[in-house]
Fold this sequence. Notes:
Layout: H1 14-25, H2 38-50, H3 61-81, H4 90-97, H5 99-102, H6 119-130, H7 139-155, H8 158-173, H9 179-195, H10 204-220, H11 234-237, H12 241-312, H13 319-336, H14 341-359, H15 364-394
Amino acid sequence: xxxxxxxxxxxxxxxxxxxxxxxxxxxxxxxxxxxxxxxxxxxxxxxxxxxxxxxxxxxxxxxxxxxxxxxxxxxxxxxxxxxxxxxxxxxxxxxxxxxxxxxxxxxxxxxxxxxxxxxxxxxxxxxxxxxxxxxxxxxxxxxxxxxxxxxxxxxxxxxxxxxxxxxxxxxxxxxxxxxxxxxxxxxxxxxxxxxxxxxxxxxxxxxxxxxxxxxxxxxxxxxxxxxxxxxxxxxxxxxxxxxxxxxxxxxxxxxxxxxxxxxxxxxxxxxxxxxxxxxxxxxxxxxxxxxxxxxxxxxxxxxxxxxxxxxxxxxxxxxxxxxxxxxxxxxxxxxxxxxxxxxxxxxxxxxxxxxxxxxxxxxxxxxxxxxxxxxxxxxxxxxxxxxxxxxxxxx
Length: 395
């Protein structure tokens, strides 16, 4: 947002105001000037045609300029916050920020050298009220922007001052309660004074130039951080801003430091927890790997035991001859075709002996004894069979 005083030239001609005044006196609102709006032309025409103006004495010029500075300082605050579009709160804002409008303050000043109220005092009064009454209160915004804005308005000359007063007149006139009273008391007379400033044989124009230079020196030397000369710092406002900021923001700094310490401690705890979890996970992995190795070794041990058991269940080589001889005897018995009770019993005994041989006992001595007993039984059976065959052949 760029206010209108930033878009005007610093050098303005008084002839524009004089020509505008002449057109107003001739009841003509048509003009080639584009600086003022049509509504402002009409407002100026109504003011000049309906007001009985009496030029003040030159001894009151400095006092009027201080009041003008006070009112324009409050006007710049509202103009900045509303971006040039007044709201329903604009009247309230302008009145309460200005000691001249809200309290009908009367400044005492006869000259710039010997004066009761100075320019820096006016700025302090307005700054103090802007830090108390409005909704938005910013010390940096007031001292860094608004002070330079009001200086720019005075440096742009009477046309810029007149335009600001016309806009202020419109803001106060739209209020249904008491805004128009301030127009009658202050705004209307200030507009007439600015318009007729150089029309009389006085030094008001020169006083305005001197006042603008003095205002420029004060604003340019403002040092909000503290410094030499007259300054508009927080100590000079008289509101104990430094103590309040230390009380409020000091606790915030302590809270922030405490939060940072808590965050750092939490981070350290988290890192330690992560280390513990990583170490525990590593130990768990090692235990799992050890268990897997033990299981693998147990499995190999079981396999070796099974192999040993299977190898122990095989028949010894010395039994192969006995088994073959038993098989030959069995084949001979079956091939003879003899079917009697003794042969059957003998065959059953041989089968049992063969099954016992095939199953294989662990004790070798018992096996040898059993084999020898069976061999004797088989020999006796074979002798008996041969004798029986010979008896049948003879008979």
